[in-house]
Amino acid sequence: MSNNQPLPATVKHLIVGAGFAGLCAAIKLQEDGETDFLVVEKGSDVGGTWRDNTYPGAACDVPSQLYSYSFAPNPDWSMSFSPQPEIHAYMRKIAERSGTLDRFRFDTALEHAAWDADAQRWVVDTSAGRVTAATLVVGAGGLSEPRLPDIDGIERFQGELFHSARWNHDVDLTGKRVAVIGTGASAIQIVPEVQKVAAHLDVYQRTAPYVLPRNDRKYGTLEKAALRRVPGLQKAYRTAIYWAREGYVPGFTLQPKLAWPAKKMALGNLAKAVEDPELRRRLTPTFEIGCKRILISNTYYPALASSNVDVVTDRIVRVTETGVVTQDGVERPIDVLIVATGFFTTELPITEHLTGRTGRTLAETWQETGMAAYKGTTIPEFPNLFMLVGPNTGLGHSSMVFVIEAQVQYVREAIRAMNTNRYAAVEPTPEATQEWNADLQRRMKRTVWSTGGCSSWYLDDHGRNTILWPRTTFAFRGLLSSFDAAAYDVQAPVIADSPTREEVAR
Ligand code: N01
């Protein structure tokens, strides 16, 4: 997609990112008649993580009927868990249909945004020039910056090396010796695909995950026709999936023992696929189910049990020009090294590029406090900034699109309140923010993410879970359904509407 028109000098709302979050914000602002907005996107297309993660086997592990916008149901999903190209195509279709794309600027990266207290506006420098905006809606994503492993010598490797989220499609893996580092949600989708073509595959596992069977199936023609034509059927289907998923919440947040059926199913899945008792032992998780993301696959364990695969559990000590060396001193030669080692999640790179009211960047603020926001969306010292997929909005069991829609609803309510009451700026009070986060962290103590005996990317350097939401998603939506001005410092005089282009030109 391309839109090379120059940036306007000023807009009322600037949205950063054109993934599920930014696109949702654009569509809903337009629906509210808030048409004076711009979306800047560093990539060349909509899609966010679903544009970037093109590795073989990439698919969603939440059913597509739920992992899609509630306002844009799609009766044409081919499978219950759709593959990445289909999800990306869905997003492109929705973007095109929305009539908002004329306000998207692709290949335009946010370089820095600073709050100008006098003008009560965000001054945003992008790779395509400067734009000012009354509100800044950040939809940059929590899983957008690949994290390369910090392994001695990795930069000296002479073969092909790439991250799962930056797949190099020019590298043909057929007949090659390949290593995959990591056994998370990305790796378990990649490994079965690589195993099919590689001469040999080494899978470097630091922690064995729980893997449930993937109850995937193709939608038949009749079923698709029914979803398209029978009034309310698709909604009922989505609702059923939603409530089934919500049923996981007590096991995650109240009593991990409630998850025993899932644990039994995962261990049964392992026992069924892996006969070798020694391999099975190494693949058996040593923490409570749910502590790390529960994975789903029918092909991962069979791939690991194949004759051309070794599961290596000795710690990696270094990478040489030609292979990987483990603690036991063994060097395994490889042609290609794939790192499926996750993303920067608790130190989001974008936070270094946002400067608030006091002149501090968000990275500096969060270095002190840890990642924290009010209702996962607004942040003291950062007036009129709305962060989608912000702190403690992540889920281990359901669709992030649901969370995004709830947050966008909150942004709409905030903007309505600003328009009606002629607020120039809204900023959550430190007290309200503290109270919100104290409650979250109190709830967090009894969750499986804290008590389950694992280390995960949900936890920051201080062991605080600043990623996940420790309650039901309907509670989240309820709490964000209206704008609670009492929790905010609001500023007058009012510039509820951005100046017109004529006013700026004068
Ligand atoms: O990343 P991860 P991911 N040496 O951080 C290992 C979403 N997602 O890209 O467990 C050796 O989960 C690390 O080991 P350990 C989803 O939310 C969704 O797989 O920390 N190993 C781990 O095994 C998911 O949770 C879908 O001990 C090292 C792996 O690398 C999130 O993205 C699909 C290492 C990283 O796993 C991230 O998943 C895919 C090192 N130095 C992803 N460093 C859907 O289907 C790290 N590891 C929706």
Describe this structure in words.
By secondary structure, this protein is an alpha/beta fold. The protein folds into two domains: 10-144 and 344-491, FAD/NAD(P)-binding domain, CATH 3.50.50; 154-209 and 269-339, FAD/NAD(P)-binding domain, CATH 3.50.50. It has 16 helices and 20 strands. A hairpin with a 2-residue loop joins strand 5 and strand 6. Helix 1 runs parallel beside helix 12 and helix 12 (400-421) packs parallel to helix 15. The model has no long low-confidence stretch (mean pLDDT 95). The structure holds 3-acetylpyridine adenine dinucleotide (N01). 3-acetylpyridine adenine dinucleotide (N01) is lined by residues 60-62, 143, 149, 151, 164, 181-187, 204, 206-207, 293, 316, 340-343, 457.
